[in-house]
Every structure is written in structure tokens, then in C-alpha cells.
């Protein structure tokens, strides 16, 4: 018995040791980026794996200003918060209607929307660009917000329909008998009960819009409107040609933080 | 004679009228729940979808006011376009490499983590870490890692005296796609690992106990119990890997823009270039329709297959 226990313990040790080695390899790129953000260019080149000689935050702070990140951060926040609000306001009632209200064509309309989940953005990005241009919304944060919310809809409606399906129908009926209208029932009774689903929806929408790259790339032109993802991309493009100005590594730490909230 | 009949009929008629009125009101209410979503969906998805098909049937450069109808000419041109066919081939290579690098290794990783008794949560969170980064960050980060002069890979190779192995990882035709797929694998393995970990929890431990009694070793248990029990999770992961591989854009665009010499060009980067830098809007629309059909067909076929086998 004691032998077996010993064997198990040494097995655990070997397991944890090998996982730790593996983990070190896996997160080495992140460690490298964080260390590089503290180093001078010379140090990055001559000793990429060593610890920085001095731990100074000056580089990182100056990168915030040089890189225009304040602006990018604000733009990303605008688009993301606007998109989240729009998605929540629009997808929740729709999901509720598909789950709880019976009407003719319910399934048909729902499947039509579900089709959008399979549709890749790449397939419709060209018409979206020209429609937005027609509406005068190309190169505006409002336009990007609207498109981001629109493309997030199919999955959001799907998610909210599943959430509202788990809320008992009897609650709706008793609220109606007590004299509440459909909308009042929705706001006062059903929506509060669907809170976990709404939170999941908000988190999901946040991650998708905050990290999106293709839509900002196509729909935004002027640099002061760039979002974080696009700002990082353009920043690295500018700096790549000029080695003396490689702030990329230093600024990267900002993006590591900002993009992974 | 007629008067009493009318008196009797009046309430009934009224009843029918209010019933109709109520049904109408109900329709309006339901519509008010759906209308904003339907409007947004129509304007930003359905209408563009139809318009992508419409664009692809014309000859339009995106700027001129007149559009010439050319029928299926753009699609016919696609079958002759070696660059498009190569892009499709690269997509396919990307799919195969991703499947090889992601599915089984992340499953093994998940199994190893599930066997840890103390600190399982730590490993779970730490291995998941890269997956929280946006693809823009992953792209820039890995461009720095592959950098031929400043990058840590080449610096390391030179430091240990293996200069001959140091290369321009993203600049060589036959290395570029594997290099990109490795970066993309790095960005996604945490996600699939979490999915597999969730699946592993649902396996009945008694099966392993029975296998232990029968004297099965860890590898046999893995192949004969773990893998078959995870069939559903495996299906989900495989389909996600394939769809990600077909849709991939951000990472490629940030790291290589399809170069060198179109060696990492995939359909989505080719669509972007044709539409927004070469002004071949109709031609690009045709490509995007083909890509859309491939992805939608795959998704629907896969869901059909899954529903049938579940």
C-alpha cells in the first residue's frame, strides 16, 4: 500500500514537472513581450532572454503617449459599449419573442436569423462597405458600431432565445392575468429572470467587438478613429521600417493588458 | 320582425370586431419585440448577402455609376485564376495543419491537466492565458518573435552556434504557412483545451476503474475510453478548427499580408485585396460568395451529421 502511494506521489511530481516545462514554453512569448517592454532596443537585440537591467516604467508610459493609445482606447470603448447596448436592447426582446410568444412563422424567421451564424463576415464585407458609404457612415465610429452590432445579432438572438426558453411560461401567464401588458411583463418579470443570460451576452459581445480586426480595417480610414486592434497594427507597420523607432515591443505590453480585459 | 334580430346580433358582431381588434393588437405587440432586430439583421446581413450575389453578376469597379451585367463571367474567371485556386489550396493546407497541430495535442494537454490533483485550476488558467489575447496582439507579437534580425528565435539559434538554422521565418515560401499556423495554434489551444476539459468531466470514472481491473495501461485507456467518450466534444472542436481555418484573416493580414510572393495568400486576404486595393469589386464579390458557400455548406452539413449521430 505504502509503495503504491509513493508511486502515485512520484507520478504526480513527474506530471506537474512536465506540465510546468510545457507551460514555460507556451507562455514564453508573453514573458518575452513583457520583459522586452522594459528594455532598451539594444538590450532586446543583444540579450532577448535576460531580465532587463533596470525596471523602469518610463518606456511604457511614453509609449502610451507616442502611440496615441489614449485615442484608440477611447474609440474602442465607444464602439464596444455602443455595440453592447444596441445588441442587448435589440436581441433580448427578439430572443424573448422567439422563446415565449407564439406567432405564425416563428420557426421560419428564427431559422432565417440562424443562417446568419454560419455566414462569414468576409462574404458580405464588400456590400457592407458600399452601403455604409451610401449612408455616409464609412469612417465613422457610429457606422462601425452599427455594423458590429448587426453582425453580432444572430448568435445573440440564439443565446437569448435559449435563455428565455428556460424561464417558465407560467410566470408570463400569471403576470398577464394580473393585468400587465406584454412589454411590462417583459421588463419587470422576464428580463430580470434572464439576467445570467444577459451577462453572458454582454461579455461575449464585449470580447468580440473589442478584439475585432477586419471590420475596423475595412470601415475606418482616418487614424484618429482607429480602434485598439487597428491602432496596434498600424503602429507596428510604421515602426517596422525604422529600427531606431521600434516602440513595438514597449507598446505591446499596453495591448497585452488592454486587449485581454 | 327585424328589430329584435338586430338587437340580438349586435353584441355578437361587436364581439367579432373586438376579437379581430385584439388579434391585430397582439400582432403589433409581437412585431414591436421583433422589429428592431429584424431591421438591423436585414440592413447589415440579409441585404448585404443578397447584394454580394448581385455584385458578383456585374462588372463593377466600385466607383463608376454604371454596372454592366455579365452573368456568371466572374465565376468562370475564378476557375481560370491560378492565384484564387492557390489561395483555396492554402486554405486547405491551413485546415489540415491546424487539425494536426490542434486536435490531438490539446486533448492530450487536457487529459494531463485533468490528472493533476493539486493546482489543477492554476494550470487551467495559465494554459488558457494566450487565448485571451486578441488576434491583433498575437499577430504583432509573433511577427516580433519571427523577426529575422531582432527576433528571439534567431538570436537563440545564433547564440548556440546554429546560425545555419536561423532564417527569415515569414519570408520563405515554404515556411510561411507552417509558421503562421503555429502562431494561430498558439492563440487557440487554450480554447480547445477548455472544451476538452469540460468534456472529460462528463466521463464516468467507473469506466477507468473497470479498465484498471482489466489491466489496461494509460495509453490503452486513452484510446479505448477517453477518445470514444469525447466524440461529441471532438466533433465540436474539429468543426471549430476547420471554420476558424477557413475564415482566418487577421493573423495573416497582420503578419504577412499574404506574402511572400502570394505564398500565404488565402481566399479572405485575396478578397480584401481585390476589393479594396485593386478595385475589382465584382470579382472580389464572386470570390466572397464562393467562400461563403463553402463555409455555410460545411457548417450546415456538419450540424446535420452531428444531429444524426448524436
UniProtKB/TrEMBL annotation, chain A:
Span of domain ABC transmembrane type-1: 73-261
Transmembrane segments: 14-35, 72-96, 108-129, 141-160, 198-220
Keywords: Cell membrane, Membrane, Transmembrane, Transmembrane helix, Transport
Keyword set includes Translocase: no
CDD domains from the UniProt entry: TM_PBP2
Presence of the UniProt keyword Membrane in the record: yes
InterPro entries per the UniProt record, alphabetical: MetI-like (IPR000515), MetI-like_sf (IPR035906)
Gene Ontology annotations for the cellular component aspect, listed alphabetically: plasma membrane
Pfam families in alphabetical order: BPD_transp_1
Example GO BP: transmembrane transport
Chief place of localization: membrane
Compartments in which it is found: Cell membrane
Gene3D superfamilies cross-referenced by the UniProt entry: MetI-like
Superkingdom of origin: Bacteria
Membrane topology designation: Multi-pass membrane protein
Family per record: Belongs to the binding-protein-dependent transport system permease family.
The name this protein goes by in its record: L-arabinose transport system permease protein AraQ
Automatic annotation (TrEMBL), chain B:
Keyword Isomerase set for record: no
Biological processes annotated in GO: transmembrane transport
GO cellular component, one term: plasma membrane
Keyword Cytoplasm: no
Topology of the protein relative to the lipid bilayer: Multi-pass membrane protein
Keywords: Cell membrane, Membrane, Transmembrane, Transmembrane helix, Transport
ABC transmembrane type-1 domain segment(s): 88-302
Subcellular location: Cell membrane
Cited Gene3D superfamilies: MetI-like
Main localization category: membrane
Transmembrane segments: 28-50, 92-113, 125-142, 174-198, 236-255, 283-305
Family indicated by similarity: Belongs to the binding-protein-dependent transport system permease family.
Name of this protein: Lactose transport system permease protein LacF
Organism: Halalkalibacter krulwichiae
Gene: lacF_2
Amino acid at each position: 500500500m505504502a509503495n503504491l502511494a509513493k508511486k502515485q506521489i512520484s507520478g504526480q511530481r513527474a506530471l506537474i514537472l512536465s506540465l510546468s516545462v510545457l507551460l514555460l514554453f507556451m507562455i514564453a512569448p508573453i514573458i518575452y513581450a513583457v520583459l522586452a517592454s522594459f528594455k532598451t532596443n539594444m538590450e532586446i537585440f543583444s540579450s532577448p532572454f535576460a531580465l532587463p537591467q533596470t525596471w523602469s516604467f518610463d518606456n511604457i508610459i511614453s509609449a502610451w503617449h507616442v502611440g496615441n493609445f489614449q485615442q484608440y482606447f477611447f474609440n474602442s470603448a465607444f464602439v464596444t459599449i455602443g455595440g453592447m447596448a444596441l445588441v442587448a436592447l435589440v436581441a433580448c426582446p427578439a430572443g424573448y419573442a422567439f422563446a415565449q410568444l407564439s406567432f405564425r412563422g416563428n420557426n421560419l424567421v428564427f431559422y432565417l436569423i440562424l443562417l446568419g451564424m454560419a455566414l462569414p463576415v468576409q462574404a458580405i464585407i464588400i456590400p457592407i462597405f458600399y452601403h455604409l458609404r451610401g449612408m455616409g457612415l464609412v469612417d465613422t465610429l457610429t457606422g462601425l458600431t452599427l455594423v458590429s452590432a448587426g453582425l453580432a445579432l444572430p448568435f445573440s438572438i440564439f443565446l437569448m432565445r435559449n435563455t428565455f426558453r428556460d424561464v417558465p411560461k407560467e410566470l408570463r401567464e400569471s403576470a398577464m392575468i394580473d393585468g400587465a401588458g406584454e412589454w411590462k411583463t417583459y421588463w419587470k418579470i422576464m428580463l430580470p429572470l434572464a439576467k445570467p443570460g444577459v451577462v453572458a451576452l454582454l461579455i461575449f459581445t464585449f470580447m468580440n467587438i473589442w478584439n475585432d480586426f477586419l471590420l475596423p480595417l475595412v470601415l475606418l480610414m482616418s487614424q484618429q478613429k482607429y480602434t485598439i486592434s487597428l491602432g496596434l497594427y498600424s503602429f507596428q507597420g510604421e515602426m517596422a521600417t525604422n529600427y531606431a523607432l521600434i516602440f513595438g515591443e514597449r507598446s505591446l505590453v499596453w495591448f497585452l493588458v488592454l486587449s485581454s480585459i | 320582425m327585424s328589430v329584435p334580430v338586430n338587437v340580438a346580433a349586435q353584441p355578437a358582431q361587436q364581439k367579432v370586431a373586438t376579437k379581430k381588434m385584439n388579434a391585430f393588437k397582439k400582432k403589433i405587440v409581437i412585431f414591436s419585440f421583433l422589429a428592431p432586430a429584424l431591421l438591423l439583421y436585414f440592413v447589415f446581413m440579409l441585404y448585404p448577402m443578397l447584394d454580394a450575389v448581385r455584385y458578383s453578376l456585374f462588372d463593377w469597379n466600385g466607383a463608376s455609376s454604371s454596372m454592366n451585367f455579365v452573368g456568371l463571367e466572374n465565376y468562370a474567371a475564378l476557375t481560370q485564376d491560378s492565384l484564387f485556386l492557390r489561395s483555396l489550396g492554402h486554405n486547405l493546407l491551413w485546415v489540415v495543419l491546424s487539425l494536426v497541430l490542434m486536435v490531438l495535442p490539446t486533448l492530450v494537454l487536457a487529459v494531463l491537466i485533468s490528472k493533476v490533483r493539486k493546482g489543477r485550476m492554476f494550470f487551467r488558467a495559465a494554459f488558457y492565458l494566450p487565448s485571451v489575447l486578441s488576434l491583433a496582439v498575437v499577430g504583432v507579437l509573433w511577427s516580433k518573435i519571427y523577426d529575422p534580425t531582432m527576433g528571439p528565435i534567431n538570436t537563440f539559434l545564433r547564440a548556440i552556434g546554429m546560425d545555419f538554422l536561423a532564417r527569415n521565418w515569414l519570408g520563405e515560401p515554404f515556411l510561411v504557412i507552417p509558421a503562421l499556423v503555429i502562431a494561430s495554434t498558439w492563440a487557440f489551444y487554450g480554447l480547445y483545451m477548455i472544451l476538452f476539459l469540460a468534456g472529460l468531466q462528463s466521463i464516468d470514472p467507473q469506466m477507468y476503474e473497470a479498465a484498471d481491473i482489466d489491466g489496461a495501461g494509460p495509453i490503452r485507456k486513452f484510446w479505448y475510453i477517453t477518445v470514444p467518450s469525447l466524440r461529441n466534444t471532438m466533433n465540436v472542436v474539429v468543426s471549430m478548427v476547420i471554420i476558424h481555418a477557413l475564415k482566418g484573416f487577421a493573423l495573416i493580414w497582420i503578419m504577412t499580408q499574404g506574402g511572400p510572393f502570394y505564398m500565404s495568400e488565402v481566399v479572405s486576404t485575396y478578397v480584401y485585396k481585390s476589393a479594396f486595393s485593386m478595385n475589382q469589386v465584382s470579382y472580389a464579390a464572386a470570390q466572397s460568395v464562393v467562400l461563403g458557400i463553402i463555409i455555410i455548406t460545411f457548417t450546415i452539413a456538419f450540424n446535420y451529421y452531428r444531429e444524426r449521430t448524436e
